[in-house]
Design goal:
single chain; alpha+beta; 4 helices; about 90 residues; two-stranded antiparallel ribbon; two-stranded antiparallel sheet
Amino acid sequence: MRKDWREITDVDGEVYHYDNNAPITLQNPWTGAPRYLSKGDALNLDGWATLMDDDLRDHLHGILAPCPDWDFVKAWSELVTVEEASRVIIGS
């Protein structure tokens, strides 16, 4: 596996592989326009965390912490739909 690729397990035990440096793909919930969140962008994890599913957020915190905010948000975005990631990130 390439060094930028990560492995994450969701709350049901399913394993996902993803490129930690790839942008997070989002879609504006109002206009449908695509948007991308990149590793160097400013993150509002404290604000977004309140909108995330509690079980998934706690699960990821338990297996990733301590980690940079990007690593957490990227892993979370791999385990939710584009619609959910967009609702939390763009809609907050």
